[in-house]
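Hey, sorry to bother you again with one of my protein questions. I've been staring at a protein lately and its backbone has me curious. I owe you a coffee for this, so here goes:
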Amino acid sequence: MTITEVSKRYDLSADTLRYYERIGLIPPVNRNKSGIRDFTEEDCKWVEFIKCMRGAGLSIEVLTEYVQLFQQGNSTIKARKQLLVEQRSQLIGRIEEMKETLNRLDAKIDGYEEKFIAKEEDLKNR
């Protein structure tokens, strides 16, 4: 699969994919005889994983550390799991903050509706 196809499939720019490869977030992608990147399904799984984790707010640094540990093999399983557990905990915290923000927005929206209804009633009674 070409970089253009992968870019469209995962809604990431080709520049982002090249950057991820350059900094080691995705393993080096094989190239065809013409020197064009030829993404395998395994490469695509890495792209999908990185995109998902970035979408959840994990930093480039954390993901780089995770990938480096992964590439070192099974001796790093415990460290990788710990890294993911820490990130999960932080994500739960962010979700709680977002829930609080959502509740605050809902209350604010409800307040506008109540004020609008009150004004409308006031206009009817004039």
Remarks:
- Residues 1-72 form a domain with the Multidrug-efflux Transporter Regulator; Chain: A; Domain 2 fold (CATH 1.10.1660.10).
- The chain has five helices and no strands.
- The radius of gyration is 23 Å.
